[in-house]
Amino acid sequence: MGKSDNIKRAKRLKEAKRKREQDALIAAGLGPASKVLQERNVNSGIETRLNTGKIKYSELLKEFVHPIVSNTDDISIVRTKYTFGAHAWNAATLREKSEEVYQLAKKDISTIMPNVPEIEQLFDEMVKRKQEDFFEFKNIIADFEIKKIRGLDYDLTVATTPLQDI
Question: Rounded to whole angstroms, how far apart are CA atoms 142 and 58?
Fold first, then answer.
């Protein structure tokens, strides 16, 4: 093995170690997105706690929004799609309390994205999917943060609040 091979091997080992460490932080809820979300909440005077329960809303939101996210989307497009998905999630959850609030949320999405003619149809499909596939999850998505970490992968952290607290 020559000197250049040793240098390449050392770089690969260092990158693999960094990836393992970052994956461990993300699994513990301490990834880059989590840090940004916690800092933003502290600056706003909001108390945050790590979710130690079995349900990870970041995983639920990923699964919920996954059908509209493409591998070719850059991080800003992914963030926009997650914002749309969180809005649809919250509207579907709030619909249980008030149909009027749901209709306002639907109207808001039409005014926010008037350039997309089929946005109301997509919104209705997302709400229906939330009600059918995720009906037992009653928390409102209060905030989320996405950070690109490598390649096409990103770290997602979600802050929620129970529906009864609203």
Answer: 12
